[in-house]
Design brief:
143 residues; alpha+beta; 60s Ribosomal Protein L30, Chain: A; four-stranded mixed beta sheet; two-stranded antiparallel sheet
Amino acid sequence: MSAQDVIVPGWPTPKGYSNGRVGKGQAVHVGGQIGWDANGKFAQVDPRNHERVGWFVAQFAQTLDNVIAVVAAAGGAVEDIADMTVYVTDMDMYRSSRKELGAVWRERLGKHYPAMALVAVTALFEREALVEIQAVAYIGESP
Protein backbone atom coordinates (compact mmCIF):
# COMPACT_ATOMS: atom_id res chain seq x y z
CA MET A 1 0.00 0.00 0.00
CA SER A 2 1.50 3.29 -1.08
CA ALA A 3 -0.84 5.66 0.76
CA GLN A 4 -1.95 5.72 4.38
CA ASP A 5 -4.69 7.50 6.30
CA VAL A 6 -3.96 10.82 7.96
CA ILE A 7 -5.32 10.68 11.52
CA VAL A 8 -6.18 14.04 13.08
CA PRO A 9 -5.78 13.94 16.89
CA GLY A 10 -9.06 14.53 18.70
CA TRP A 11 -11.25 13.95 15.63
CA PRO A 12 -13.69 11.03 15.48
CA THR A 13 -12.57 8.01 13.47
CA PRO A 14 -13.94 8.27 9.91
CA LYS A 15 -16.38 5.55 8.89
CA GLY A 16 -16.62 4.85 5.17
CA TYR A 17 -14.25 7.64 4.15
CA SER A 18 -10.87 9.15 4.95
CA ASN A 19 -10.16 12.77 5.91
CA GLY A 20 -6.78 12.60 4.20
CA ARG A 21 -4.19 10.23 2.75
CA VAL A 22 -0.43 10.57 2.46
CA GLY A 23 1.61 8.72 -0.12
CA LYS A 24 5.04 8.33 -1.67
CA GLY A 25 6.04 6.95 -5.01
CA GLN A 26 4.75 7.82 -8.44
CA ALA A 27 1.54 9.83 -8.53
CA VAL A 28 -1.06 8.62 -11.00
CA HIS A 29 -3.70 11.25 -11.76
CA VAL A 30 -6.78 9.52 -13.13
CA GLY A 31 -8.72 11.83 -15.43
CA GLY A 32 -12.49 12.00 -15.11
CA GLN A 33 -13.93 8.56 -15.80
CA ILE A 34 -17.58 7.98 -16.64
CA GLY A 35 -19.89 4.96 -16.75
CA TRP A 36 -19.19 3.65 -20.21
CA ASP A 37 -17.33 0.54 -21.22
CA ALA A 38 -14.38 0.13 -23.60
CA ASN A 39 -16.81 0.31 -26.54
CA GLY A 40 -18.26 3.64 -25.43
CA LYS A 41 -21.55 2.07 -24.32
CA PHE A 42 -23.09 3.31 -21.10
CA ALA A 43 -23.99 0.75 -18.46
CA GLN A 44 -27.67 -0.26 -18.65
CA VAL A 45 -28.90 2.80 -20.49
CA ASP A 46 -32.13 1.86 -22.23
CA PRO A 47 -34.27 4.81 -23.34
CA ARG A 48 -37.41 2.65 -22.94
CA ASN A 49 -36.61 2.00 -19.29
CA HIS A 50 -37.27 4.93 -16.99
CA GLU A 51 -35.68 3.28 -13.94
CA ARG A 52 -32.92 5.87 -13.50
CA VAL A 53 -31.78 4.52 -10.13
CA GLY A 54 -30.71 1.29 -11.85
CA TRP A 55 -28.86 3.33 -14.45
CA PHE A 56 -27.18 5.36 -11.74
CA VAL A 57 -25.92 2.34 -9.80
CA ALA A 58 -24.77 0.60 -13.00
CA GLN A 59 -22.91 3.71 -14.16
CA PHE A 60 -21.31 4.14 -10.73
CA ALA A 61 -20.10 0.52 -10.90
CA GLN A 62 -18.68 0.94 -14.41
CA THR A 63 -17.09 4.26 -13.47
CA LEU A 64 -15.31 2.65 -10.51
CA ASP A 65 -14.20 -0.20 -12.79
CA ASN A 66 -12.75 2.38 -15.19
CA VAL A 67 -10.85 4.19 -12.41
CA ILE A 68 -9.48 0.87 -11.16
CA ALA A 69 -8.47 -0.09 -14.73
CA VAL A 70 -6.45 3.12 -15.17
CA VAL A 71 -4.68 2.60 -11.83
CA ALA A 72 -3.97 -1.06 -12.73
CA ALA A 73 -2.64 -0.06 -16.17
CA ALA A 74 -0.18 2.23 -14.37
CA GLY A 75 0.97 -0.70 -12.21
CA GLY A 76 -1.11 0.07 -9.13
CA ALA A 77 -3.84 -1.54 -7.08
CA VAL A 78 -7.05 -0.39 -5.42
CA GLU A 79 -5.18 0.20 -2.16
CA ASP A 80 -2.97 2.77 -3.91
CA ILE A 81 -5.91 5.12 -4.59
CA ALA A 82 -5.43 8.03 -2.19
CA ASP A 83 -7.96 10.60 -3.38
CA MET A 84 -11.23 10.50 -5.26
CA THR A 85 -13.69 13.19 -6.36
CA VAL A 86 -17.12 11.92 -7.39
CA TYR A 87 -19.33 14.17 -9.50
CA VAL A 88 -23.03 13.28 -9.73
CA THR A 89 -25.85 14.88 -11.70
CA ASP A 90 -28.50 13.97 -9.11
CA MET A 91 -27.61 14.11 -5.41
CA ASP A 92 -31.04 12.82 -4.37
CA MET A 93 -30.50 9.73 -6.52
CA TYR A 94 -27.12 9.21 -4.88
CA ARG A 95 -28.66 9.51 -1.41
CA SER A 96 -31.53 7.14 -2.21
CA SER A 97 -29.09 4.56 -3.67
CA ARG A 98 -26.58 4.51 -0.81
CA LYS A 99 -27.23 0.86 0.09
CA GLU A 100 -26.74 -0.33 -3.50
CA LEU A 101 -23.76 1.98 -4.02
CA GLY A 102 -22.20 0.66 -0.81
CA ALA A 103 -22.47 -2.89 -2.12
CA VAL A 104 -20.87 -1.84 -5.43
CA TRP A 105 -18.06 -0.11 -3.51
CA ARG A 106 -17.35 -3.12 -1.28
CA GLU A 107 -17.28 -5.48 -4.30
CA ARG A 108 -14.56 -3.38 -5.90
CA LEU A 109 -12.65 -1.59 -3.14
CA GLY A 110 -13.49 -3.60 -0.03
CA LYS A 111 -12.90 -1.48 3.05
CA HIS A 112 -10.46 0.86 1.31
CA TYR A 113 -11.62 4.47 1.64
CA PRO A 114 -9.58 7.20 -0.07
CA ALA A 115 -9.92 10.85 0.86
CA MET A 116 -13.09 11.77 -1.00
CA ALA A 117 -15.38 14.55 -2.08
CA LEU A 118 -18.88 14.18 -3.53
CA VAL A 119 -20.03 17.06 -5.72
CA ALA A 120 -23.41 17.62 -7.38
CA VAL A 121 -23.18 19.18 -10.84
CA THR A 122 -25.88 20.27 -13.28
CA ALA A 123 -24.48 18.19 -16.14
CA LEU A 124 -21.46 16.26 -17.37
CA PHE A 125 -19.95 16.56 -20.85
CA GLU A 126 -21.46 13.29 -22.09
CA ARG A 127 -25.21 13.82 -21.90
CA GLU A 128 -25.97 10.26 -20.74
CA ALA A 129 -23.35 10.33 -17.97
CA LEU A 130 -24.75 10.42 -14.45
CA VAL A 131 -21.43 9.97 -12.60
CA GLU A 132 -17.83 11.04 -13.18
CA ILE A 133 -14.86 10.20 -10.95
CA GLN A 134 -11.37 11.70 -10.81
CA ALA A 135 -8.74 10.03 -8.64
CA VAL A 136 -5.12 10.15 -7.54
CA ALA A 137 -3.11 7.04 -6.69
CA TYR A 138 0.45 6.68 -5.38
CA ILE A 139 2.30 3.68 -6.72
CA GLY A 140 5.57 2.48 -5.32
CA GLU A 141 7.23 3.38 -2.04
CA SER A 142 5.26 3.23 1.20
CA PRO A 143 5.04 6.48 3.18
